[in-house]
Amino acid sequence: MTLEINHLKKRFDEHQAVDDISLSVNKGDMFGMLGANGAGKTTTFRMIFGLIDPTAGSVTWDKDRLSYKRTHLVGYLPEERGLFPKLTVKEQLIYLMRLNNMKKPDILREMRHWLDRFQVPEYENKKIEELSKGNQQKIQFMAAVIHKPELLILDEPFSGLDPVNSDMLKEAVLDIQKQGTTIVFSSHQMRNVEELCEDLIMLKRGKAVLQGNLKTIKRSYGMKSISIRADYDLDFLHSVPGVLSLDKRKDGAIVKVESEDIAESIFHHIAKKGFVRKFEVEEPSLHDIFIDKAGEDAHE
Ligand SMILES: Nc1ncnc2c1ncn2[C@@H]1O[C@H](COP(=O)(O)OP(=O)(O)OP(=O)(O)O)[C@@H](O)[C@H]1O
Predict the structure, then answer these.
(1) Are residues 206 and 275 both part of a single domain?
(2) Which protein family is it in (predicted)?
(3) What per-residue confidence (pLDDT) applies to 300?
(4) 62 plus 189 within the same structural domain
(5) Ligand 1 atom nearest to 36, measured from its CA
(6) Which of the residues 173, 190, 238, 265 could staple to 287 if both were Cys, CB 3.0 to 4.6 A apart?
(7) Could you tell me if 211 and 230 lie in one domain?
């Protein structure tokens, strides 16, 4: 079972929201979709789920279009959370899961399992409007997973969660993946993507600007980050060709350079100045790559 996206495009009047993206995600993989605000992530998710039709290109799950009859195979956590404030958690989940043809005893069993897991068993009979935003999000997440979909789409699942709840959700997502579910998610929090994804696509104004295996991308990315500790001012490194940025720290600096060769030349420059306490060349973080690639659209 594979999610296949081929030359997918979506145009809204004059605006090309998604511009020719192709990707495939194999069963059980976790795939990250990155991009600044307005890059086209949500539009892509809506096309995967079948809420809107592509202008061109195709989306298939297990070689077939995700038509209305097959939507129960997919779990979708939409960006615009859509719960009914006046319903209780139980009523809400029964309502949504009946749409997936789930039987009531199965819904209740799964709901209680998840409420226990999220350490909020007492929420069963609480109204949605009585819950905090973060806790409503847990219920929305449950609505995406209770029917055990083959493909799970999570649009910004971690936004608005405190660190404890964010970790709880992350563990839940990893467990669901272990059970063989294929997961595609978007996040503005690069650390989450680094922790969870093997493969990713980075969109900018609807186009893929970076795509592939995260480890390979990081290894092959020219840019390097050097962590330096020294007892003298490192400001002079600003004028070394190939230095992209210099971020001063208490007893040194983090210097971003274009390539490993530049890192070597930096080492010679500072060694001439005096004793170097630390000089460590690291691969760029996904955050660095995002700023570099998503460019002026990224306001992280
Ligand atoms: N129904 C619509 N009609 C017109 N324009 C739309 C519509 N839906 C999305 N767009 C436009 O398409 C572009 C992509 O939007 P989309 O919501 O897919 O971005 P996104 O990557 O999910 O952004 P964010 O991180 O802010 O959620 C935006 O410029 C948006 O204004």
Answers:
(1) no
(2) Belongs to the ABC transporter superfamily.
(3) 42
(4) yes
(5) 25
(6) 190
(7) no
Ligand 1 centroid from CA 43, angstroms: 6
Question: 160 with 234, same domain?
Answer: no
Residue whose C-alpha is closest to residue 141's, from 231, 76, 87, 67? 76
Domain range for 248: 222-282
Q: Ligand 1, residues 9, 10, 11, 12: which to mutate, most atoms within 8 A of Cβ?
A: 12
Task: Please indicate, yes or no, if residue 292 is contained in any of the structural domains.
Answer: no
Q: pLDDT digits over 15-59, tens only? A: 999 999 999 999 999 999 998 888 999 999 999 998 899 999 999
d(CA 266, CA 28): 43
Residue 297 belongs to some domain of the structure: no
260 CA to middle of ligand 1, Å?
A: 38
User: At 134, which CATH number?
Assistant: 3.40.50.300
pLDDT tens for each residue of 141-183: 999 999 999 999 999 999 889 999 999 999 999 999 999 999 9
Among 107, 194, 116, CA closest to 145: 107
Kindly state whether residues 212 and 234 are assigned to the same domain: no
20 shares a domain with 39: yes
Instruction: Report the residue among 19, 37, 43, 46 best suited for mutation to probe ligand 1: largest number of ligand atoms under 8 A from its CB.
Output: 43
**Cβ(12) – ligand 1 distance below 6 Å:** yes
Three-state DSSP class for residue 185: strand
Q: The tokens of 255 are what?
A: 């210097």
What span, in angstroms and rounded, lies between the C-alpha atoms of 83 and 78?
11
54 lines ligand 1 (CB under 6 A): no
Q: Given the DSSP bridges, would you call strands 182-186 and 30-35 parallel, antiparallel or unpaired?
A: parallel
Within a domain: 299: no
35 Cβ below 6 A of ligand 1: yes
From 85-89, 219-223, 225-229, the region with the lowest mean pLDDT: 219-223
